[in-house]
Design brief:
heterodimer, A: about 325 residues, mainly alpha, two-stranded antiparallel ribbon, about 45% helix, B: about 170 residues, ten-stranded antiparallel β-sheet, about 35% strand, elongated
């Protein structure tokens, strides 16, 4: 017996001030003082069917929509006709009876395309989902701002992927992004600068250490050589032996020096291939670093080829 | 380096100019203008069929005006009624040396809203100064290139503005 009090809330007749405990599964509102069931036939919001946890359900029946993020796609209240289940959905020839030809979300079609491109590119260089998500967010922000509307979406996607890698602290060189994208380095660079201006963000400068682990593991160098190369590159930049050289070239030359001094020697060509620098560039930076080799190596480095016998190109 | 434009105010037949003038080149498939050079103030001019002309390479404002007049004279001699209207200097480029190496990383950290330094793309720092709207390319060696000025004073002003900043980022 729910008695309407002065407020429109139901309350227990004996204890009008008591807090009502709501039990949605049974559809009750129970008085906390005396246990009287006050409201009944309140709408049950529990699930309509039971799902057993050990059942390997690839479709979770308690979800009625896709789990995709509506944050990146505008208010996604549109629906599509799903693929048919059961035999009635096929017409005489075996084709599906209803074709989902309607273009859903035409304004976000470009967004969805770009997200797919970003995801493809990231996949080729094994980037984690966090970077892909960040790149998607950047792309959406750029797309909303509309001042780079004229640029090719692929270029904006590549540039936003580059920025995302930078922001996460694991920069990829422009050449690495070029390798997985069909846009030229020049265009990606241009879009990169435009995006920074449009979003008014800054990025940190790249350092030699950011690339050491990647290049060294691609070359199969042991961690001792990698640590040595990192130390060499950092010392070279601190002592300013290589003014004006791109950090990638300095890193490549440091790897060359470290690999030549240890057991696993690598040629300049191999390192150039991995790092995306020309081997003459490595030669140039190496020539600058060679005279200072003694200061550059870490103190506890085990030389299998001593410094005097390092190649002098 | 000064880049200027002038309107000769008469339609020109580029083929005829290219044929009769001595130091002219014209590939209509590549670019729609005649490229003419003179030795006296060593300059190059792009002459379009509409009668407009762009003169580049002069070392001072007067040289640019003089060179443009010389080009107009050449065109006139070929029989076109060329005039000399609206001579305007569009861009002035200057370069200088501060004679000490510069720490670009420090500069981009403090002046990040004006500077853009991307060693992978370009070895110099691109500094876009707001007050005289000038773009400066600053290199590690200490050399500075200033461009985007319409008048000589802007270049001097920009350099006076940037010099103390560069001094504070001297490498030693």
């Amino acid at each position: 017996m729910a008695s309407r009090a002065r407020l429109s809330e139901v309350c227990c007749p004996q204890h009008p001030e008591a807090h009502l405990i709501e039990d949605y599964r049974a559809g009750d509102q129970i008085c906390s003082e005396c246990g009287l069931v006050v409201g009944d036939r309140v709408i049950d919001v529990g699930s309509e069917w039971r799902t057993f946890s050990n059942e390997k359900a690839n479709s979770d029946p308690s979800r009625v929509g896709g789990p995709e993020n509506p944050l990146l796609n505008g208010s996604d209240l549109s629906t599509i006709i799903g693929p048919g289940t059961g035999s009635a959905s096929f017409d005489g020839f075996g084709g599906t009876k209803y074709q989902n030809r309607r273009s859903m979300s035409s304004s976000d079609r470009a967004l969805i395309n770009a997200f797919r491109e970003i995801s493809n590119m990231a996949d080729k260089i094994n980037l984690p989902k966090t970077i892909v998500d960040r790149a998607n967010v950047l792309f959406k922000q750029v797309h909303d701002g509309k001042n780079l509307k004229g640029r090719s979406n692929d270029a904006i996607a590549s540039a936003s992927l580059y920025i995302a890698c930078r922001q996460e602290g694991v920069p990829r060189t422009f050449k690495e992004i070029c390798a997985v994208s069909k846009i030229s380095k020049k265009e990606i660079g241009r879009c990169f600068k435009l995006i920074l201006k449009a979003l008014e963000t800054q990025v940190d400068l790249i350092t030699t250490g950011d690339f050491m682990s990647r290049f060294c593991s691609n070359l199969g160098l042991p961690t001792s050589a990698q640590k040595a190369a990192t130390h060499i590159a950092r010392k070279a930049v601190d002592l300013d032996i290589v003014p004006g050289r791109s950090p990638i070239s300095v890193a490549a030359a440091a790897i060359y020096m470290a690999s030549q001094a240890s057991d696993d020697k690598r040629t300049q060509k191999e390192i150039g291939d991995i790092a995306g620098v020309a081997d003459v560039t490595i030669r140039q930076s190496y020539k600058l670093m060679y005279p200072h080799a003694k200061e550059l190596f870490p103190e506890d480095f085990k030389f299998s080829t001593p410094i005097e016998l390092l190649p002098q190109l | 380096n000064i880049v200027s434009t002038v309107n000769l105010n008469c339609k020109l037949d580029l083929k005829k100019i290219a044929l009769h003038a001595r130091n002219a080149e014209y590939n209509p498939k590549r670019f729609a203008a005649v490229i003419m050079r003179i030795r006296e103030p060593r300059t190059t001019a792009l002459i379009f069929s509409s009668g407009k002309m762009v003169c580049t390479g002069a070392k001072s404002e007067d040289d640019s005006r003089l060179a443009a007049r010389k080009y107009a004279r050449i065109v006139q001699k070929l029989g076109f009624p060329a005039k000399f209207l609206e001579f305007k200097i569009q861009n002035m480029v200057g370069s200088c040396d501060v004679k000490f190496p510069i720490r670009l990383e420090g500069l981009v950290l403090t002046h990040s809203q004006f500077s853009s330094y991307e060693p992978e793309l370009f070895p110099g720092l691109i500094y876009r100064m707001v007050k005289p709207r000038i773009v400066l390319l600053i290199f590690v060696s200490g050399k500075v290139v200033l461009t985007g000025a319409k008048v000589r004073g802007q270049i001097y002003e920009a350099f006076d503005n940037i010099y103390p900043i560069l001094k504070s980022f001297k490498k030693q």
